Amino acid sequence: MRPPSSVLHSTAFRFSIYFAGLFALIAVSAGWGVYVWVSDEFQDRQDSYVSEMKDTLLTVAYNDGFNAARNVIARKARVSPEAGIIYLLTDKAGRLIAGNIDPIPTFEGTRFIPWQALHLKNVWSEPTTPSGMTASWTLLEDGNLLIGDDDGDIIEAQRLLVAGIVGGSAIITLIAAAMGFLLGLRAQRRIDAISEALDAAGKGQPHLRVARTRSGDDIDRIGGHVNSTLDQLQRVLASLRQVSADIAHDLKTPIGRIQRRLEELLETDVGLEGYRQTVTATLSEVEGIVETFEALLSIAQLEAGLKKQRFREVDLRDVLATLAGDYQPVAQEYGHELKFLDRPGHPVIYGDTELLTQLFANLVENSIRHCPPGARIDLTLTEAEGRIVFEITDNGPGIPKEEHCNVFRRLYRLEKSRTTPGHGLGLSLVSAIVLLHDGTIQLGDNKPGLTVTITFADGAPIGGRSTWESVGERRVWNAGRSGPASAPSARTRSRAIQ
Amino acid sequence: VAPPQDVAQGQDMRVLLIEDDDEAARHIVRGLVSAGHDVEAAGDGNAGLRLGALQSFDVMVIDRMLPGLDGLSIVEALRTSGVRTPVLLLTALGGVEDRVDGLDAGADDYLVKPFALAELRARVNALGRRVGNDNENAVLRIADLELNMLSRTVVRAGRRIDLAPREFRLLETLMRNSGRLMTRKMLLEQVWGFHFDPKTSIVQTFVSRLRSKIDRDFEVPLVHTVRGRGYSIDAPAK
């Protein structure tokens, strides 16, 4: 795993911080609104309480006289500390008549008077919460009345609100940040896994794969793409390594023979005829090497994708009938029976006659050469539903199932065929030609013997990337966009070209 | 050291060689001279084109990759200016396209490097025979063997011989080049249209079938094997 610093740089984490910040801002703004509203509400209630009290006292004074009011005030003043209300009744000269504070000068309207400015009388306990009183004077006939209420409730409410808002916002922010961090960490781990796999591939070790979550989310999809790209890369690298190693190995053998022969020639007196024989044999070794190289170059050229301007409509029936005619005598010579079983249909594809001939010749020769005498080799060609299927079957030794995917590899030769002539490039060339024609090739067991099935789309479209795909135990060249549904028929194409 | 078997079949031709690799050029010149040809060599494209345009040759052997003017352009320039001398193009590239490009440019034959000198000689000989020979004749004759292109019949010593189409084509190709070595590769290209190397003995099989039909029942064999090289059809020396 990466150090957390890289988590802090992850996109998901940055987003989580943005969102946490946004959450905090929204919570604080909302809290501020509540704070203002609640404070106003408390203030209103306090004001109405004070004015109610004042009205009551005024009513008392009006109905029962000043003294009655004074008595009520004196009584209330004694119990008022718990209620947090101040009462002050003075005469017109400002001297105390009744109340729970020392007289203060009169003023107009409502004022806030801090505790320090009020001299609380006897019963008052030292207040904690309130900072002061909101009070107003009322002028009576025989004196002045001051009623005030402390702001303890408001301050308490405000304190709770602020605590709630700050605490709440902090919790929201922390949770958002923590969630973001965890999500970011999770995403980061998955991205780290991807970049680790890519790093390793960059360093030439393309065997790491990204673990899939099957969630189908974006990271999982990218992981899937990375995996399939790495699969392909690994295959290509493996085949490259194998091909290089095989070329080196396969060519060392004939080059070694050439070296030995030439050394022998230098060191022994073989006479003119011996000299000529050795040189002739050496030359044929050289020809073999040249042949191997030419085949390798052809495959490389085919795989690079031949220009397809040369592609024409090719009637595979004609190609195969001619080829069967040419190889029947050869098969006879080897003691085999070669037959071309033609089925009705219109087996025309878009391709290169020369390469297709080479493709079929290669397969026919493989069967002829690898079957013991007396084999039966059948070529069949069928066309149905826009697909053209060529099949060659023999009842020879076949190819073991576990070797099916190997035989298309360049220079690969089955152990038992090491002794027969050939450079192990035949089937690689075959599959390269099939691929060029957007077809698929498949090996099967003829029980006993080998079946090779090649499928072309009718008038296979030009181009289209093709890839190896594993289909069960078989390996199939899968043409990129061939298919009966999308493939225009050869006839349509030829009209379009004309 | 005796000359190689196929050299004796050479005829005196004037050959132009355009090849920039000195060592390869010396090798080719020596090989062609030993076959009795007269060789003029040029080391670069422009000099080669000048020689080819100004002098008359029986065959030109042109390397495809050359400094100055490349082989394809030389062939195109020569053809445009009306020079119809047969051209054998030498190339390091052996792909289908390369060959087709070469033939499209006006070359008559195409040989991929590296090649055996015998293969080059056989092809030069075959090309040289194309000019002013009886290629267009409808009836080809060698000794008592007669091949009629129009009726597609083969008669030897008055006896009709039935040949399969491919056998007929093989005999025709050999007869058109009678007295000349036809390598296995040349036969594969000209008779079968195969531009690859088959791993079976298809040429040998067909030649032996042809032999069984036109030679077996007759006293004098006409089809000859040049061991390790190819085949030729030849009237018996008198």
User: What is the average of the pLDDT values of chain A?
Assistant: 79
Strand content of chain B: 15-25%
Overall form of chain A:
rod-shaped
Main pleated-sheet profile of chain A: 5 strands, antiparallel
Report the total helices of chain B. Answer: 8
Based on secondary structure, the structural category of chain B is: alpha/beta
| Unreliable residue runs of chain A | 460-498
Can you characterise this structure?
- The complex is a heterodimer of chains A (498) and B (238).
- Chain A has 498 residues and is an alpha+beta fold.
- Helices cover 53% and strands 17% of the residues of chain A.
- Chain B is α/β, with parallel strands linked by helices and 238 residues long.
- In chain B, 37% of the residues lie in helices and 21% in strands.
- Chain B has eight helices and twelve strands.
- Chain B has a five-stranded parallel beta sheet with strand order 2-1-3-4-5, with helices on both faces. Chain B has a four-stranded antiparallel beta sheet with strand order 6-7-8-9, covered by helices on one side.
- In chain B, helix 1 (22-34) crosses helix 5, helix 2 packs parallel to helix 3 and helix 6 packs across helix 7 (184-192).
- The longest helix of chain B is centred in the first third of the chain and has 13 residues, at 22-34.
- Chain B is elongated and about 55 Å long.
- The model of chain B is unreliable at 1-10 (pLDDT under 50).
- The A-B interface holds A 272, 280, 283-284, 286-287, 290-291, 294, 297-298, 301, 306-307, 310, 325-327, 329-330, 333-334, 352, 354-355, 357-358, 361-362, 365, 368-369, 421-422, 426 and B 1, 94-97, 100, 112, 114, 116, 164-166, 192-202, 205-206, 209, 228.
